[in-house]
Structure formats: C-alpha cells, structure tokens
Amino acid sequence: MKTALLMDIGSTYTKVRFFDLECLELVASTRAHTTVETDVTIGINKALSQLKEQGVDWEKATYRLACSSAAGGLKMVAIGLVPELTAEAAKRAALGAGAKVLKVFSYELSDREMAEIQSLEPDLILLAGGTDGGNKKVILHNAKVLAHSSLDVPIVAAGNKSVAHEVEEILAKANKDVRVTENVMPELDKLNIEPARETIRQVFLERIIEAKGLEKAQEYVENLMMPTPAAVLAAAQLMADGTDDEEGLGELMVVDVGGATTDVHSLAKGDPAKSGVNLRGLPEPYAKRTVEGDLGMRYSAQALLDVVGVKLLKEALKEMGFELSSDEIKEKVYRLSKDVEYLPQTEVDKALDTVIGWAAVKFAVKRHVGRVEVIYTPFGSSYLQYGKDLTPLKIVIGTGGVIVNHPEPGKILKGAIFDDNDPTLLAPQNPQFWIDKQYILSAVGLLAERDPSAALKIAKKYIKPL
User: Fold this and answer.
1) Is the pLDDT of residue 466 over 80?
2) What does the pLDDT look like over 271-289, one tens digit per residue?
3) H or E segment at 25?
4) Number of folded domains in the chain?
5) Which of 48, 357, 373, 465 is the most buried (most CB within 10 A)?
6) Pair 58, 85 in one domain
7) Is the pTM here over 0.85, yes or no?
8) How far is residue 24 CA from its own chain's centroid?
9) For position 208, what pLDDT does the model report?
10) Are 193 and 267 in the same domain?
11) C-alpha to C-alpha distance for 148 and 58, rounded to whole angstroms
C-alpha cells in the first residue's frame, strides 16, 4: 500500500498526518507539544506513538516528509537599495520562501544599522540592491559592512549581476557563507524572485535545520524539506493551478490565523478587473505571501489591539450581543497575550476570540490586497491601481486553529470581504469560503513534492466549502 507520513514541526505542536495514497484517505492525525528547546525527538516520538496506538505502522510509509516553523521559524533580514524597489523585491522573495522577515534595510548600511541587524539574530541575510547594470556602489558597500561584521549566518546575494562576483569575493574573503543567485529585480518594474526563493530553501536544508536543532528529526523522516509557510504556499498553488491530469480550482486566497501571526497567500495575477484602470508600482508575484506579526490570537493579541483599536472590537462584540467596557476588553486581551494556550470557556470569551480572529483577517487582508486611487486631471479622472486587484476572487480558504475549530468560521472569514465603507481596497467581493477542517494544508504542500496528483485529490476531498 502506498502511504505518506507528513509532519509539521510547529512552534507549539508537532502535527502528524498519515495518508493512504491509494484510497486517498486521511488515516490518522496526531499531535504532541514540540520539544525543540530540549530534544525535538521527544515530541515527535509522542506524536508517532499515538499513531502506533491507532494501528498505523508509520515506519513502512512510502514517503516520510516534514516541514517546520519551530524555534522561531526561518528568521531573515532583507537588504536592498530603494525601499519601494529592490528592498521590497528582496522582502517578497524572503516571504515567498516561507521566512519571517524581521526587518528590511535600504540604501547604505550605517554602523548603527549593522549593530541592529546583529541584535535581531537572523538565521539568514538576503542581500539585494541595484538592477542589472545599475547602481553598484550600495550593494558593494553593504557587502563590505557585512564582511567586517561578526555575523555568522549565510548570506544570499541576489543583486546587480554586474558586481555579483565582487560581492561574492568580498564576503568569501571574510569567511562568510555566501550564495550568489539571480537578481531579484534585474530591471525596473520586473520581479525575479524564484531563484532567490530556491536558494533560500537550499540554505534552509543545508544550514538552518542543524542550527535550530532540528536535524534529529531526520531520524524519522527521509527529508525535512521546507519551512511550514512555504509548504502552505505550495499547497495553495497546487490547489489553484492543478496538475497535468487534475484540474485546479482557479485563483484563490488562503488566510491562516495563528497565535503569533496572520498569513495571507494569494494565487492570482491581480490585474485590473475594470477597464480604464492603470497599474502602478512594483509588479506583484502570482504566488504572493504576506505575514503580519502584529495580528495574532495570543502572542500578538496585545499588538492586534493596538492596531485595530478597542472601539472596533467593542462594536463587533456588541453586534454579537455582548456589551463589554473598553477596560474589560483590554484586560481580557492582556490575559490572552499572557496565557497563550488558553481555550475560551465562557460565551463572552468565545465571542471575543471570534472578533479578534475577524479583526486579524480584516487587517491582514487589507494589507495584502491592492488599492485604487483616483487622480483628477484637466482631462477628467484617472484610476491608478497599486498591488493586486482581488475583487473577482471566488475562493477564500481558511485555516489556523481559531478558524478550523470554530463552529461558525464564516464569522471570522467575513473579515476578508470587500468593505463598501472603504471601496479603494481591492478585497474579494463575493467569495465562497472553504475550510481546511483537518488542518492538512502543510501536509498537502509536502506531498506535492512527491506525488502532486494525489496531493491535489486529497486537498479537494478534505478542504471543502462551508
């Protein structure tokens, strides 16, 4: 029997899914607390023991694959030339590789900025800057600053190809682990982030897994393949595009609400949906991921309150029939941020979780989608679009604990819908909500590396419309 053991070593839980690939069945699901801070195999053994108790002989699985976001995930710093151009392109490449971008730096690095980078303790640096044949000075300066630093992490150089060799020499002479790849922005208004994403993934496999104490996980799996967010993005792309023998669902969005962050993935071109609208700004990647570190259900609950404001939560709670004072909401949110494993027990706490989840979705999608501006000229009005127009999108898939465990997940996902009160934001207007009820998106992304056809059929079987 052809089977797959697929494991997600998360920041809190190690989640295991076991599939029968011939029947396309999810045979068993288990989880245990992740124990990467002591010995990652303790948590893995607990999760696998539960599989054994369910009669699953996981050791005979055809595929044994894993992804991980444990130990802080893949933490990166991106460096570019102009904030809106190469620095933004570098950030998008890092996010697309499943990284957590700690900060983006632009222009020539100062001593103070270099000290800040060291204090951030990234796992990897993405060094960009200059289009091909364009500005050379800044990336060379920044390579020298990095070379003279005590930073001992891999550096992926993805800038102006005219000086790529010089950048490599500068860093290599300083005994830095440098990998040169194609420019993330070879020409103005042209993105080329796939080579950088692939190089980042290679570095993750070769260096980061060991650095984070995850190498012992490979006793149980044939390969620890990628950061978890990259697996989710791969699953979303598979579901949207399909395979040679299985049709996909078409353009879609995935919203993943977690305790610390809210991720939004869109698989869509995002071209203007209406005539007479002109695109402006940096081109958008078809497979786009954004991650919001200040929008989360627990670790980031306090930051979320600062972003959305107590008034919005108060009004949303009132609509659900719960009247709380501002101070009561603040006190409850503070407790949630401190007790990150708290599961709501009362009706009012359940309602608060719902509105926090809804607000996280609303603001994360708001930052992900494009916007349109109206410019008035002597010849009439003109419409300019920045970012993706996702108004025609037909499918929004929800995942993350607060969504998949919620009795009415639509109440949370409605935060992703176009808002008539803010019509400049190009959010989906009339999407159908789908739910990753079995929490299998990362498993689907892993399986897509070995058997994309089976992965897609499983995704279609278990990820369903509301």
Assistant:
1) yes
2) 999 888 989 888 899 999 9
3) strand 25-33
4) 3
5) 357
6) no
7) yes
8) 27
9) 76
10) no
11) 49
